[in-house]
Amino acid sequence: MQTDIIIIGAGLTGLTAAFYLKKKGENFLVLEKSATYGGAIKTERENGFLFEKGPNTGVVGTPETAELFEDLADRVKIEIAGDEVNKRYILKNGKWEALPAGLWEGIKTPLFTFKDKLRLLGEPFRKKGNNPHETLAEMVKRRMGESFLNYAIDPFILGVYSGDPAYLVPKYALPKLYNLEQDYGSFIGGAIKKGFAKKNEREKKATRKVFSVEGGLANLSKALYESAGTENFLFNAEKIQVQPQDDFFTVKIIHNGKPISIQAKKVITATGAYALPEILPFVPKEQMQKISSLKYARVIEVVLGFKHWEGMPLTGFGGLIPHIENRDVLGYLFLSTFLKNRAPEKGALLTLFMGGVRKDYINDYSDDKIKKIVENETLDLMKFTKFKPDLFKIIRHKQAIPQYGADSGERFKAVEEIQNSYKGLILGGNLKDGIGMADRIKQGKFLSEIFE
Ligand SMILES: Cc1cc2nc3c(=O)[nH]c(=O)nc-3n(C[C@H](O)[C@H](O)[C@H](O)COP(=O)(O)OP(=O)(O)OC[C@H]3O[C@@H](n4cnc5c(N)ncnc54)[C@H](O)[C@@H]3O)c2cc1C
Predict the structure, then answer these.
(1) Is 242 in the same domain as 152?
(2) 65, 147, 250, 323: which has the highest count of C-beta atoms within 10 A?
């Protein structure tokens, strides 16, 4: 068998790359280990509920995301979340407090200490940091104060990375924030200046809007898969191994128990870092170790559906629970509040997360124990008198979210070196370039253009 380009992995990254390669009329084949496409994205319907078993919502944070939906307009419709998403709650001392959206709310909020609120006035004048490996926790304490770290940044990081601000390094994990300080000397001043900066039409497509897809995110994967040409995918491709030859690659796989060998001029990997030692056995161990050492958060996602909601009013995007509050749930998303047709009328669909990097041990709890914790926490936090969900799903993600820590620079260097040594081999996927769906779409499109 022969082809021009092989993509390994049919998650959002690989699917986006495949879609744009097809548009350019390229000859390619996507090899996927599992039986279907979509990777982390999984949507299901049951008992009157439409729910996700992976990511729930993304942010239209890159022009490529808006453009992908434009390019797929005849097959899939983006769903922009209602304005309710602008209201977000943070738990403090067991009580939900609204995250301030403006100056007056910011002054009044009990989330941050009076001292830190005063200190924030001096943020634009504080000295610029010069340690590229400074952790997020160090950076926020230095510029904003501990209460902002505990009750704004920490829950935000739990919501996005299920991670630890004392491990993540802003240069790699939050480059936009890092660059605000580096380019403008201040988060606040930089954000204001950037807000007033002139943007071209394309840049304007990147927004803070929260999106899903009508009928669920799996409809996006399906649209990409079908538009990329279903004949260009091989599922259940096991034990994939790439071997570089003179000016091409031999890719060996086991398919339906039989060995197959495919020759390709170019190979793009779009898997997590953990898959690469097996896929690229020719890369020296030490070099590969720098890549495959990338830590992934383990996360438990629990989907809760109620046909008749009797808890507190679910007005908002959801509620996040700072680590310092010492609870067993990381946060709730009030999905049926801001997305359409997710639960029966008068009902509610919520998703909650548990575990993550800082409470990793929870990932080892049995389903029964998880159920008990969810019941106790939800009764208390959602102000229920009885806990009788009509839908209850526990989804365990063993390699959910990559954690971009201080070792990221070494990792990116190793990736560059491998790509330079083996021309035609490109290492994509979430080991670099961001963890969110918008980042994955941006990288997927870039991968389709890399050999131009
Ligand atoms: C629980 C959870 C919640 C999330 N929440 C959000 C959110 O709210 N917003 C947001 O923007 N993002 C969120 N994300 C992140 C988002 O889902 C991912 O960034 C995106 O879906 C990853 O796409 P990908 O294609 O890079 O990787 P994946 O989806 O992981 O796809 C990789 C593919 O490679 C395949 N593969 C792996 N190993 C091999 C191998 N050896 N051979 C062949 N194929 C292989 C896998 O089977 C898979 O299909 C969440 C992720 C998780 C897990």
Answers:
(1) no
(2) 65
Instruction: Indicate if 276 and 128 belong to the same structural domain.
Output: no
- Give, for ligand 1, the residue of 52, 300, 435 to mutate: max count of ligand atoms closer than 8 Å to Cβ: 435
Q: Give the count of alpha carbons within 13 A of 414, CB side only.
A: 21
Confidence bin at 139 (pLDDT 50/70/90): very high
The model's pLDDT over 301-334, given as tens digits with 9 standing for 90+, comes to: 999 999 999 999 999 999 999 999 999 999 999 9
Q: How far, in Å, are 216, 222, 223 from residue 237 at the CA level? A: 27, 19, 22
Q: Which of residues 368, 386, 402 is at a domain's end?
A: 402
Rounded to the nearest angstrom, the gap between the alpha carbon of residue 237 and the centroid of all alpha carbons in its chain is 25
Is residue 430 within 8 Å of 272, Cβ to Cβ?
yes
Helix (H, G, I), strand (E, B) or coil at 437: helix
Q: Whose CA is nearest to atom 5 of ligand 1?
A: 55
Domain count, the chain: 3
CA of 439 to the centre of ligand 1 (A): 12
Question: Residue 31: which domain range?
Answer: 2-36+219-293+404-449
For 84-199, where are the alpha helices, taking DSSP H only? 103-108, 114-120, 136-143, 146-148, 154-161, 170-173, 175-184, 187-196
Q: What is the pLDDT of residues 206-216, one digit of tens each?
A: 999 999 999 99
Residue 7 lies in a domain: yes
User: Which one, of 339, 352, 303, lies nearest residue 91 by Cα?
Assistant: 352
| Global model pTM greater than 0.85 | yes
pLDDT tens, position by position, 144-174: 999 999 999 999 999 999 999 999 999 999 9
Ligand 1 centroid to residue 115 C-alpha, Å: 41
How much distance in Å is there from the Cα of 402 to the middle of ligand 1? 10
| Backbone φ/ψ region at 274: left (φ over 0), alpha (ψ -120 to 50), beta | alpha
